[in-house]
């Protein structure tokens, strides 16, 4: 009996918790590089990349070969019980890649939320303080502490009551929406004045480019002033590079483009080419503030994920994916600007590297987000064989996270579908 998307989605509805959303009513069967085939045999161009997890594409041969080789050795010991070389080697390589001219150490875990949680734990242990400042529009995860940091209540914390305290909200700078660097810095100073003294703040957590929040990049001037503010008050700067890391913005970490280094950097998503892996890298003395036993996890830094990540790093070097990232980004932005020229509902085309988004407004007015059209474009694109994602505080942003390994021909086909959708719907 052949399987269908409809029948499997019915089974999903009956068996899977309602809170696990279903963006597309499609059940994937297999994939390769930048395309996915569903259970009915239909092929889709993948401009979602598993939400920024597949910078090296689906089933990259080098990544799969590394995992297959590791399967013949061992799959689990728990690193805290019996160490294994891939974990150590990966930490060495991450220490060399993360921005900052200082000695570093790394912790490996499993998910982005777990990485952010551990970064906060480390910051609290290192400073003896407990408060944290996060930003409007930020997304840091779905666990309890990270929900406190995430600047979007619905849907992530809807109906769950108040999250853990000690988290204060500053305003993320965004020129498009009238939030200047000065205003953003002033919002932090307001926290110091109204809510918590600087000596009570352990860390400020920021995405160099907001992910779920709309792909807004923090200006270099802001990051430099934020770095100075943290130094002035003995506050640690945490860069959440879960979505921006592993080459998505054209440098391996986005902070390389910001002119400053964070004290702690979180990473996950594309670091292991589709295998669950995340981590925290930071100044050695800060990372060592937590006593033995205070960090880790049963599956943290799985051998399979570690060898996958080592392979991903080799792929980036051998295939020059950072340069390819810039080329992909420029090609996408050029195509989107051509569509924008015909459809003024597209109020902005933006992105660092290949972390690309367009934002839709009614009559070009940034105060009138057009989420309805975004939803229609996502649906129509899927009907035409292209998988897209939306994001942003008002769901009026279309984001593109296509694998960096996608061929130009496939990129152009995807862009042609987006153009058709706007021609038909806008």
What does this protein structure show overall?
- The chain has 426 residues and is of the alpha/beta class.
- It folds into 2 domains: 5-60 and 320-425, Aspartate Aminotransferase, domain 1, CATH 3.90.1150; 74-318, 3-Layer(aba) Sandwich (Aspartate Aminotransferase, domain 2).
- The protein is built from 13 helices and 15 strands.
- It has helices spanning 5-15, 49-52, 61-71, 85-97, 112-127, 144-149, 181-194, 220-233, 284-287, 303-318, 321-342, 371-383, 408-425; strands spanning 28-32, 35-38, 43-46, 104-109, 131-135, 167-170, 201-206, 236-240, 264-267, 278-283, 346-352, 355-360, 386-387, 389-391, 397-400.
- The strands form 3 sheets. The protein has a 7-stranded mixed beta sheet with strand order 4-10-9-8-7-5-6, sandwiched between helices. The protein has a 4-stranded mixed beta sheet with strand order 1-2-3-13. A 4-stranded antiparallel beta sheet has the order 11-12-15-14, with helices on one face.
- α4 (85-97) packs across α10.
- The protein starts with a helix and ends with a helix.
- The model has no long low-confidence stretch (mean pLDDT 97).
- Belongs to the class-III pyridoxal-phosphate-dependent aminotransferase family.
- Pfam families: Aminotran_3.
- It catalyses: 5-aminopentanoate + 2-oxoglutarate = 5-oxopentanoate + L-glutamate.
- Catalyzes the conversion of 5-aminovalerate to 5-oxopentanoate.
- This is 5-aminovalerate aminotransferase DavT.
